[in-house]
Amino acid sequence: MENDLIKYLSQHTVLSEDMIRIISERSVIRSFKKGTLLLKEGDPVNECFLVLKGCIRSYMIIEGQEKSIEFFIEEQSVSPGNYGTDIPSEYYLECIEDTIVCAATPEMESEMFGIYPEIESECRKIGEKMIADYQASYTNYKISSAEERYLNLMKHRPELIQRVPQYQLASYLGITPESLSRIRKRVAKKL
Amino acid sequence: MENDLIKYLSQHTVLSEDMIRIISERSVIRSFKKGTLLLKEGDPVNECFLVLKGCIRSYMIIEGQEKSIEFFIEEQSVSPGNYGTDIPSEYYLECIEDTIVCAATPEMESEMFGIYPEIESECRKIGEKMIADYQASYTNYKISSAEERYLNLMKHRPELIQRVPQYQLASYLGITPESLSRIRKRVAKKL
Q1: CATH placement of domain A2-117
Q2: Cβ contact B134–A135 (<8 Å)
Q3: How is chain A split into domains, by residue range?
Q4: Would you say A78 and A49 are in contact if contact means Cβ atoms under 8 Å apart?
Q5: Which of these, B30, B52, B146, B188, is most buried using a 10 Å CB contact count?
Q6: Do A139 and B60 touch (CB under 8 A)?
Q7: What ipTM does this complex have?
Q8: Chain B residue closest to A125 (CA)?
Q9: pLDDT level of residue A134 (50, 70, 90 thresholds)
Q10: What are phi and psi of A149, to 5 degrees?
Q11: B30-49 burial, b if ≥16 CB within 10 A, otherwise e?
């Protein structure tokens, strides 16, 4: 898994081989079984993650019902809401597959950034990319009908359709499982 | 307006007085009349902004119709989609009030960060806060009905209800102006 981390850092940063070695030596790589909850509503939010293998779902429980918010797969970073603050989590994070992550805490980050400012600089750039991705997802969600959202998902994140249970995908798309099933049939006919 | 910038930097960063002076001396402060377009679909995205006074709306044109995506007021930063990349803008940015901004380009940022890494460090932290804010807005949008979205807006951004034209607010909430009008009447009765 250290190799996956090195691959990620080489592809997503301009860090030197030395810097990449330093990060991978100091990184905490952790494995979790499918079904593990990494974070619960009310927990302090002390860790962020980079998914090396598997899939993490973030969700909330609203009036007793799970609402899937986001899915994070290989090479995506999970910076949970309220990370690094004193405010408890509003979200749950669940491994919906056997999952391996690289985990960091604000203390680890701040120690490493203090010694190696170039690593912080790359993290700033990755953060900017994440802001742009969030903006794009939010915008797409707002301007699309349920069917368009499903077509977007097929186009931009087809792996989620294979890997995520249908009822979780439905709540992610803001629709009922029955609507998702109707949309899938309609789309299949058109293809 | 330089004073507003200094106030923002003192409140949102832990930069020293010296650093704040350096930024405010190098900053480009620009004024625009209400109605000015700062960015159009297809333009290169060369600038990001911090709003010192006024209100900027981002929108897209979908099948001939304006869809309002976001509103940025005092002390909010506008990092337009595709900023700092070669990809042209998909968004419009319009000043919907007389507006004063502090503007930056990737070149200005990179020069300043090269000399003063502590400024980049603060920008990374502001970026993390922006990611958290986007996550929260996106989540709220997904889990709420139109009426709940309006109530959320009343609670968290009441100034928008006063400052933004109703038809723009309606498309921001993902509803028609007629639905917004009905929701307002319903909510007014309950209060």
Answers
A1: 2.60.120.10
A2: yes
A3: 2-117
A4: yes
A5: B52
A6: yes
A7: 0.80
A8: B124
A9: confident
A10: -60, -40
A11: bebeeeeebbeeebebebbb
**Could you say which of B82, B83, B143 has the minimum Cβ distance to residue A67?**
B143
How far is it, in rounded angstroms, from Cα B153 to Cα A145? 22
Quote the tokens at residue B142: 């997904």
Spatial distance between the Cα atoms of B6 and B21, rounded to a whole number of angstroms: 8
Express each pLDDT in B74-86 by its tens digit: 988 898 888 888 9
Residue B138 is nearest to which of A62, A121, A137, comparing CB atoms? A137
The helix/strand/coil state of A43 is coil
Residues in B touching A124 (Cβ below 8 Å)? 120, 123-124, 127
Q: Name, in order, each residue with C-beta under 8 angstroms of A111's C-beta and a sequence gap of 6 or more.
A: none
Tokens of A100: 């391996």
Q: Name which of A191, A157, A190 is nearest A173 in CA terms.
A: A157
What residues in A contact B143, CB-CB < 8 Å? 60, 62, 67, 69
A19-56, pLDDT tens digit by residue?
Answer: 888 888 888 889 999 999 999 999 999 999 989 999 99
Mean pLDDT of B84-113: 91
Residue A134 CB coordination number (10 Å) = 19
Which of the residues B68, B78, B131, B168 would you substitute to probe the A interface, choosing the one with the greatest number of A C-beta atoms within 10 Å? Answer: B131
